[in-house]
Design goal:
The chain is of the alpha/beta class. The chain contains 14 helices and 12 strands. The protein has 3 domains: 58 residues, no CATH class; 256 residues, 3-Layer(aba) Sandwich (Aspartate Aminotransferase, domain 2); 129 residues, Aspartate Aminotransferase, domain 1. The structure holds pyridoxal-5'-phosphate.
Length: 484
């Protein structure tokens, strides 16, 4: 079959339409009379003129070229792209929710405010924190919000010399970026031979200029920081605060809580751990929880319950202000709320247990054919190295491209940077033993081919719509706009 590669604009035929508008039942107004000539455009918009069936076919065919967690196994490491139960979508599309307007009088939006209020409580319970703000629209924005709170806290004590944020090299890339954006000096510390924070390096760096430490836990190697209690004790002792990047909470929900580990601020990614899809960059939600001492600094408004009503509390003099328009991405919060209600405390715990079990299952099944640099019990993900295969000429990138041909979304490659030829595998909890076995089988076959026919693996993918792309060019010089 010949594929039609044309853009929808290129399928346009003058005069062809795919809609009928109802007859105009309001008087026509000449805008120029009120606003002057300048308000009118000089030519019509250049939008495609196509029939309804053209539109349906065009976008259905495009969607089939995509690969998502609804199409197949998606073991992307670091970001928990887990399956999103469809009931969450059903709940979020109930008219009473989807037709709400953020400027509506709070008295007529009590149901939505109750969901925010209860979600604050649920997440506070899950994180071991006092209160939560649901405003940040992504994990990285949660980090930024947390760092603004750290700054506001030190400033409120006139402790202006605290300018450093410590970030281990196994943390997620957004951590140092957020700290720099918030105006802190970023100090990186190395990992030890077990893949955890190097305690000697930490000891050396701690002084009264440290504003705080940001820790991704489990870290990007999929490992739980063994010295976490000691770390929080040391940082607190020198007057710093502790920020917990909880984007990897999928490993520990209902089992361990950042608050109990001594952390002062923690974020979760609702669009990952709590099962709300966020294709194409959004919308997401990265709420942060804080301990009691930091509650006054939370962004406004905080949703409070007064008598029987939910109210928006703006009267908080120490607040860092607003970090997002209105109150956060309500529909994302709602989907996550639905997920939490559906799972219950035991369900969340079981999800984490299964996520950890699945990752360890794959790790054990691949350890004889691939190098696993930190080969010990992992959390929800693990990192392997394709170094052995690279010596035969087959890199992590080649393996990823071959997985595409086999019908899998490849894992994250070349991250974290502290491992050569990295592949970071996160199966998540929803995958069956059959799916895991089939993936393992494929990975094993590729490893064997790397020994016997390395050249044969260099030309994948062959079964996808496009073959190997110049990825650097795509990143440096993206062409995202069609010009007539
Ligand atoms: C560990 C970790 N921290 C932070 C982030 C940033 O989250 P977001 O992509 O929502 O900004 C991610 C995801 O990319 C992550 O995996």
């Amino acid at each position: 079959m010949i594929r039609d590669e044309r853009l929808i604009f290129e399928k346009s035929v003058p005069g062809r339409i795919g809609f009928t508008l109802p007859a105009n039942d309001v008087p026509e107004v000449d805008l120029t009379e009120t606003f002057g000539e300048g308000v009118l455009r000089s030519s019509g918009p250049e939008i495609p003129e196509v029939s309804e069936v053209d539109v349906i076919r065009h976008y259905t065919n495009l969607s089939r070229r995509n690969y998502g967690v609804d199409s197949g196994f998606y073991p992307l490491g670091s970001c928990t792209m887990k399956y999103n139960p469809k009931i969450n979508e059903d709940i979020a599309s109930i008219d009473g929710f989807s037709q709400m307007h953020p400027l509506q009088n709070p008295m007529s939006a009590q149901g939505c405010l109750e969901i925010f209020y209860r979600m604050d409580k649920y997440l506070a319970e899950i994180l071991g924190m006092e209160r939560v703000t649901l405003q940040p629209a992504a994990g990285a924005q949660g980090e930024m919000t947390g760092l603004m709170i750290i700054k506001a806290y030190h400033m409120s004590r006139y402790d202006e010399k605290r300018v450093k944020i410590i970030v281990p090299d196994s943390s997620h890339g957004t951590n140092p970026a957020s700290a720099a954006l918030a105006g802190f000096e970023v100090v990186q510390i190395p990992s030890d031979e077990k893949g955890c924070v190097d305690m000697t390096a930490l000891e050396e760096i701690l002084d009264d200029t440290v504003a705080g430490l940001m820790l991704t836990n489990p870290n990007t190697l999929g490992l739980f920081e063994e010295n976490i209690l000691k770390i929080s004790e040391m940082v607190h002792k020198c007057g710093g605060l502790l920020y917990y990047d909880g984007a990897n909470m999928n490993a520990i929900m209902g089992i361990a809580r950042p608050g109990d580990m001594g952390f002062d601020i923690a974020h979760v990614n609702l669009h990952k751990t709590f099962s709300t899809p966020h294709g194409g960059g959004g919308p997401g939600s990265g709420p942060i929880g804080v301990v009691k001492e930091l509650v006054p600094f939370l962004p406004v408004p905080v949703i409070e319950k007064q008598d029987d009503y939910y109210v928006l509390d703006y009267d908080r003099p120490l607040s860092i202000g607003k970090v997002k328009s209105f109150y956060g991405n309500f529909s994302v919060v709602l989907k996550a709320f639905s997920y939490i209600m559906m799972m219950g405390p035991q369900g969340l715990k079981s999800a984490s247990q299964a996520a950890v079990l699945n990752a360890n299952y794959i790790r054990k099944k691949l350890e004889d054919l691939y190098d696993i640099p930190y080969n010990r019990i992992c959390m929800h993900e693990f990192v392997l190295s394709a170094d052995r295969q690279a010596q035969k000429g087959v890199t992590a990138l080649d393996i990823a491209k071959n997985l595409l041909d086999e019908g899998y979304h490849p894992p994250t490659v070349y991250f974290p940077l502290i491992v050569h030829e990295t592949m970071m595998i996160e199966p998540t909890e929803t995958e069956s033993p059959e799916t895991l076995d089939a993936f393992v089988e494929t990975m094993r076959r590729i490893a064997q081919l790397a020994e016997t026919d390395p050249e044969g693996l260099k030309h994948a993918p062959k079964n996808t719509y496009v073959t190997r792309l110049d990825e650097v060019k795509a990143a440096r010089n993206p062409v995202l706009r069609w010009r007539p």
